C-alpha cells in the first residue's frame, strides 16, 4: 500500500501543505521550499554536534568547501564538546540572526532544538536534519542521512556471522551489547535495528547476554565517549566473565569498538580467539584493526556523499524547487519528515579494499 505522509510546514508567513512519502524508495516526494528560492551568496548555517567521531570532523570541512563551491556563504559551527545542547541552540540562533536561508543541523540532542527551528521557520528558512533527526518539532522540512535502521541490522548480522566463522564449534555464544548516547536519536535506531536480528537468537537461546543487560538504558554510552564504553566493558568482564568465554560484542561505532577491544585485551579475553566486535564509520584508526582481525566489522557511510546530497538539496531550494527525497518519510514524533537515505555498506576484511576504492586514504590502510 502506498503510504502518504502529510506534513504542514509554515514559513515566511505562508502555510504550505506538502504531500510526501513513497514506498518504492525511488520516487521523489514534494516537500517545502521557499517559493521564490534565494540568491547565491546567501548564508547557509551548518550546526554540527561535538566531534565524537571522525565523520563529524570531516563533515565540517566538506560543508565549508562544497557550499562555497556551490556559490553559498557557509557558516559552519560545532557544539562545544564539553557543553550541552543549549550551546548548539545558541549557535543556531546566531545563524538565524545572520539570515541563514537554510539550516543544516546535526543535532547534539535531538529533542532540544524546538525553539530554534521554530524561529528559523518564522524567518523563512528551511530546516534540514543532517544524519540525526530533530525530534518532536513540526518545524523540520527534510532529513538526509544514511539509513540508520539498516546500519543496525548490518551490525547485528555481522555479529552473528562473525561469531559463526570464528567459533565454528560453538552451539551458543556469549555476548554483550553497547549503544550510543541517549541524547542522539540514532543510538536507539542503531540498537533497535541490531536487536531485530539478535533478539530472536537471544529468545531461542543461541545468544546469551551474560551480564543480563539487554535494555537499551543499560547499554548506552554517555556522550558517545570511548572512556565510558571502556569502563563499562571493564566492569562487565570483571563481574561476569571469570572462566567464561566472551564470543562477541555489539559496538555501535568504531570509536567505542576500539575502547571495547582495549578492555578485552587488558582482561586477557583476546586469546585464544579474539571475540567479534562490530563497529561503524570506517574510521582510519579502525581499518588496520579490521585487516588484522581485532575488530571484525565496520560500516562504510561515506561522509563525502552525505554532504554532497545535503548541498544538492540547498541548490534545489535556492532555485525555488522542492528538494528531492527518495524514501518513506521519517516520523519525528510530531510530523513525517521527507527523507533522503543513502545506503550504508557493511565492511569486513574481505571487502574492505573494494568498499574503499574511491577513498585512497582508507584504501591504502587495507594493504
Ligand atoms: C552517527 C554515527 C556516529 C555517532 C557518534 C551518530 O549520530 O550517525 O555515525 O558514530 O553519531 O559520533
Describe this structure in words.
With 367 residues, this protein is of the alpha/beta class. It folds into two domains: 146 residues, Response regulator (Rossmann fold); 169 residues, Rossmann fold. Helix content is 38%, strand content 19%. The protein is built from twelve helices and 15 strands. Strands 4-3-5-6-7-14-13 form a seven-stranded mixed β-sheet, sandwiched between helices. The protein is elongated. 50% of the residues are buried. Beta-D-glucopyranose binds next to helix 1. Beta-D-glucopyranose (BGC) binds next to helix 1.
Total domain units: 2
CATH class of the largest domain: Alpha Beta
State which percent range the strand residues make up: 15-25%
Q: Number of helical segments?
A: 12
* Shape assignment: elongated
The overall pLDDT average reads 91
- Taking all Cα atoms into account, the compactness measure Rg is 21 Å
Major beta-sheet overview: 7 strands, mixed
Structural class, from secondary structure content? alpha/beta
Counting DSSP E segments of at least 2 residues, the number of strands comes to 15
List keywords for this structure.
Rossmann fold; 38% helix; seven-stranded mixed β-sheet; 12 helices; binds beta-D-glucopyranose; alpha/beta; elongated; 367 residues; four-stranded parallel β-sheet
Amino acid at each position: 500500500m502506498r503510504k502518504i505522509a502529510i506534513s504542514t510546514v509554515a514559513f515566511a508567513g505562508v502555510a504550505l501543505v506538502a504531500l510526501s512519502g513513497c514506498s518504492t524508495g525511488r520516487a521523489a516526494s514534494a516537500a517545502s521550499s521557499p517559493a521564490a528560492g534565494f540568491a547565491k551568496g546567501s548564508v547557509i548555517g551548518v550546526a554540527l554536534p561535538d566531534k565524537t567521531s571522525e565523520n563529524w570532523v570531516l563533515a565540517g570541512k566538506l560543508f565549508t568547501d562544497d557550499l562555497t563551491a556551490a556559490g553559498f556563504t557557509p557558516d559552519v559551527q560545532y557544539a562545544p564538546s564539553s557543553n550541552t545542547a543549549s550551546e548548539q541552540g545558541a549557535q543556531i540562533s546566531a545563524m538565524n540572526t545572520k539570515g541563514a536561508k537554510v539550516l543544516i543541523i546535526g543535532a547534539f540532542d535531538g529533542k532540544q532544538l524546538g525553539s530554534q527551528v521554530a524561529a528559523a521557520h518564522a524567518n523563512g528558512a528551511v530546516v534540514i536534519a543532517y544524519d540525526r533527526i530533530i525530534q518532536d518539532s513540526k518545524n523540520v522540512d527534510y532529513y538526509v542521512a544514511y539509513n540508520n535502521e539498516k546500519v543496525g541490522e548490518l551490525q547485528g548480522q555481522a555479529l552473528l556471522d562473525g561469531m559463526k566463522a570464528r567459533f565454528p564449534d560453538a552451539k551458543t555464544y556469549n555476548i554483550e551489547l553497547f549503544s550510543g548516547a541517549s541524547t542522539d536519536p540514532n543510538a536507539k535506531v542503531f540498537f533497535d535495528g541490531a536487536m531485530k536480528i539478535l533478539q530472536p537468537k537471544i529468545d531461542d537461546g543461541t545468544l546469551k547476554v551474560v551480564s543480563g543487560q539487554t535494555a537499551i538504558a543499560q547499554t548506552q554510552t554517555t556522550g558517545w565517549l570511548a572512556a565510558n564504553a571502556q569502563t563499562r566493558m571493564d566492569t562487565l568482564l570483571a563481574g561476569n566473565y571469570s572462566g567464561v568465554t566472551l564470543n562477541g560484542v555489539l559496538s555501535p561505532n568504531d570509536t567505542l569498538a576500539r575502547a571495547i577491544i582495549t578492555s578485552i585485551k587488558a582482561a586477557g579475553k583476546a586469546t585464544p580467539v579474539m571475540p567479534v566486535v562490530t563497529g561503524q564509520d570506517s574510521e582510519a584508526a579502525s581499518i588496520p584493526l579490521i585487516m588484522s582481525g581485532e575488530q571484525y566489522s565496520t560500516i562504510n557511510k561515506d561522509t563525502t556523499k552525505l554532504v554532497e546530497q545535503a548541498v544538492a538539496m540547498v541548490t534545489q531550494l535556492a532555485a525555488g524547487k522542492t528538494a528531492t527525497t527518495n524514501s518513506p518519510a521519517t516520523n519525528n514524533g510530531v510530523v513525517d519528515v521527507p527523507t533522503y537515505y543513502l545506503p550504508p555498506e557493511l565492511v569486513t576484511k574481505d571487502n574492505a579494499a573494494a568498499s574503499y576504492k574511491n577513498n585512497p586514504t582508507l584504501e591504502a590502510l587495507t594493504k
